[in-house]
Amino acid sequence: MALFNWTRRSALAAGTALALAFGGVTGAFAQTPPGVLIVGQIAEPKALDPAAVTAVNDFRILMNVYDGLVRYKDGTLEVEPALATSWEISDDGTQYTFSLREGVTFHDGSDFNAEAVKFNFDRMLKEDHPYHNTGPFPLSFFFSAVQDVEVVDAMTVKFTLNAPYAPFLSNLAYPTGLIVSPAAVEQHGGEFGRNPSGTGAFTFAEWRSNEAVVVEANPDYWGGAPELQAVVFRPITDANTRTAEMLAGGIDLMVEVPPVALSEFQGDTFTVHEQAGPHVWFLILNAKEGPFADKRVRQAANYAINKEAIVNDVLEGTAAVAAGPTPPAFAWAYNESLEPYPYDPEKAKALIAEAGAEGAELTFYVTEGGSGMLDPVAMGTAIQADLQAVGLSVKIETYEWNTFLGNVNPGLEGKADMAEMAWMTNDPDTLPYLALRTEAWPDKGGFNSGYYSNPAVDDLLEKARAATDQAERAKLYQEMQTIVQEDAPWVFVANWKQNAVTSDRVGDFALQPSFFLLLDGVTKN
Amino acid sequence: MTGYILKRLLSAIPVLLGITVIVFLIMALIPGDPATAILGSYATPENVEKLNRDLGLDKSLVQQYFIWLGNMLTGDFGQSFALNRPVLDEVLERFNATLILAGTAFVLCSVLGIAAGVVSAANQYGWADKAITFTVLLGISIPSFFLGMMMILTFSVNLRMFPVSGMWPIYGDRDIWALLNHLTLPAIALAVVATGVIARLSRSALLEVLRQDYIRTARAKGVHERGVIWRHALKAAMVSIIPVLGIQAGFVLSGAVYIEIVFQWPGVGRMLVDAILKRDILLVQGGVVFVAACYVFFNIVVDVAQSLLDPRIKT
Asked: Is 0.85 exceeded by the ipTM?
């Protein structure tokens, strides 16, 4: 017997000693080196080819490796020169001529010029282009208005559109318009997504699957070499593990902090960054059939729901109450005079009584997750409670995200009265154009799943798309927002404030309203 | 013996074929498709249709099944939509990582479990037995992912003794010590429940053997107690313990997915969860078929080991 006890005890002791030894010997790992920024991402990137990806997660890396012809001005969603130094727009709004920046080279050494720009857009848009098979290019429809790209001379390129399309410049600033090196595409073909080459502040160094994407500083960057030596993007899918890594010092920067974890980062060791994003969280209301076909009931829903409580208590202040269909992040197009629907259950009850909809039974589609959906189950439950309080009986049906999209996108007719939805866009045109026009009903290929229709709104949106003067576009969008808020095809709930946390070793970091992570000015000691 | 092994291998083929049909049908029947998943907010019917065509998903189901099966038999498991790389490469890498994690956990739980069970049985009703039984009960009751999270909080965040997540360090050498450093917490978290089960069952298996007459004979002959327990009794008890080990291996392998998620271990369980949510059809199918094949093979090995140990099984 004595032998067993000895064996067991000594085994235990040996085990503990070994464990402590491992911990001690490599305990120093937690100190990440200076000059190297470690970013905690929410997922493994799909590819590093900007034309082939759709997720913000991938964009965060791409915006540091590539540049576009234009880019968003720091802290805004307005466009400024990048690889193009200036441009001219023809009077009819269909021809854009760009003068390109001289002396820029891709990371692989080849020259940046008009031929390179033409290569990029032909690859995406022309099916007979020799490298079109390096796709698919899911977001190429952003440039569906482009009819032809012409090389005028070595540093001048002209785009001809098939109709005036005001969001064109904004789409060029979006990752789908980032310029890739034709030489690298020709060299790697379909493997280009794993061997990227652009003109950006950081060059691609290595990609260890499911572990890290490493990019290093580009000393010859046309905008000035970055302060950091390298950036490591680590995919950590579980939010709690990401939080633990941030707390333990394994990562220096973390995006999409779960609201309940924000309190962990109060204090001096961490800085919490917040920025209003171009995001809207809303409820699609079935305006074709059922109680919500009556405008008064839709408005009643807007009055009945306590949006302040949702934003402050459920989302812990990580969002702001939404007034209308356009988020304030589009500062130039946002209608400042719009006030959100106040929380007024009495008014809601009165409107419902007027419309004769007391006791109406509503089917509510709720999802369990999804990009930009924040906390959909908790918010859905709060909304259900608020509506019950004014006499509307709500039945929730919950679906997993992709299943949910499969139910909602074809339209709510015959299925539900209301559904949660959220959108993040880069231009104030996209969401209303795809989700509020009569021509955007699901049977016509759009996302207007609630069947809202107002010819005045349709007219304003068409005009705003064709107008090239920003002030004129702004006026049209502002008028559209007033009408849409009054018509209430949706319950406007929240605009997400994207957040990030940095450790005290990181400096000069600011979140951009576009949700992109721009790291060329960031320092780390 | 060879005949027995061949028979088992042959009977595995219809099992594997059945699995391919089932997993294919499941992926075909669940709502949602990869194109919608990839496009997200931009999934207009037009874009979805175009992407489906580009991905080869517009063919009939039967056609798709046989194309997929034919390719698999030549070793081509297809390309993952979400990850843009060959399915087989991804599955092999991830499975390798899971094997390391689950294998270590399995070795830990077998050795510790059997040892604990033996000590417990040898000291039946003694203080060692009571202590071990209590610990085992605790171990079986705690959910492994909760234990994992608590371990991260304690040992990684507060005490900074171990890294929080991942299989390899971002910096430094990727040698065996770095791997063990990253492996410690997840392997322990994964092994706890299985250790408890094995300990309990080893204890009862051994107790039953110890009651036998030949054990009394061995003691009467003058064999040391140590020899009685380890040489005679344990060998006999192993016949009942090995099937338990086989089953627990399965649980450890499948339970690894929670640990992989909590510790961000790049394993095959987590890969499958992500792939299902993204409707990455070929990755799910390839992954499931691969893991199922390994499990079938492992069971054959266990059966062969069983037949070697137990003279009552005729081969």
From this structure: no
